[in-house]
Amino acid sequence: MPSRSVTKTFFLWIGIGFISFIFLKLVLTDKNPASGLAYSEFQKLVDDNDILSVKIYPEQNSAKVFALLRGTQKYVETTIPSAELPDLTRRLRDGGANISISEVRSGNWTLFS
Prior knowledge:
- By secondary structure, the protein is α/β, with parallel strands linked by helices.
- The chain folds into two domains: 1-29; 35-101, Signal recognition particle alu RNA binding heterodimer, srp9/1 (2-Layer Sandwich), CATH 3.30.720.
- Helices cover 39% and strands 26% of the residues.
- It contains three helices and five strands; from the N terminus they run αβαβββαβ.
- It has a five-stranded mixed β-sheet.
- The protein is elongated.
- The chain starts with a helix and ends in a 12-residue tail after the last strand.
- 9% of the residues are buried.
- Residues 109-113 have low confidence and may be disordered.
């Protein structure tokens, strides 16, 4: 039978671990999540030069695009056909947007959202 101080120490460390997990979850959550946008609406933003920067994640037949808007500093996301990617990147460069293309999208390591 464990002594009372060992039990207290055990629960103290469990509590510290739980509080640490909650703290990390709060710090690492995305404070400005991307809102979904239709591709036609995204094209209008590109034409109006409202895109400050984009991250493009190519997939087999499409690409996920995450964009930071110039005026509102909000993020939007959309999916585009792969065939549109060369024209889109040209139009974004012409509009002065910073473009980043990444082959791998890192996942969120936390299990609870």
